[in-house]
């Protein structure tokens, strides 16, 4: 795996490297190899992963065929929206102390 460092921007190169490692599944593999996994636990985990993959594929196929609705896209800028401030008339006096 190789990452180019441009303009001595090491922070950006590290972010790119982490993203590549995440995509390749290296972090998941390191976590799995940290401790011994019994063969029975491995079989159970692999079966669960297979079921998850099959369900995901079936869900995507059902969405493509129009049998179920596609999930709503997440908003790009999540967070509470504040209502627009009303124009000030100038007659209000600003408070300087804490509100009670």
Short account of what is shown:
The protein has a domain at 10-65. Helix content is 50%, strand content 0%.
Structure description:
The chain has 100 residues and is mainly α. 50% of the residues lie in helices and 0% in strands. It is built from three helices and no strands. It has helices spanning 10-24, 26-33, 39-65. The chain is extended, with a radius of gyration of 26 Å.
Could you outline the blueprint of secondary structure elements for this entry?
Layout: H1 10-24, H2 26-33, H3 39-65
Number of helices: 3
Query: Would you tell me the structural class of the helices and strands?
Result: mainly alpha
**Proportion of residues in extended strands:** under 5%
Number of strands: 0
Distance between the termini: 59 Å
Largest sheet: none
Spell out the helices and strands N to C. Answer: HHH
Provide the descriptors you would attach to this structure in a database record.
single chain; mainly alpha; 100 residues
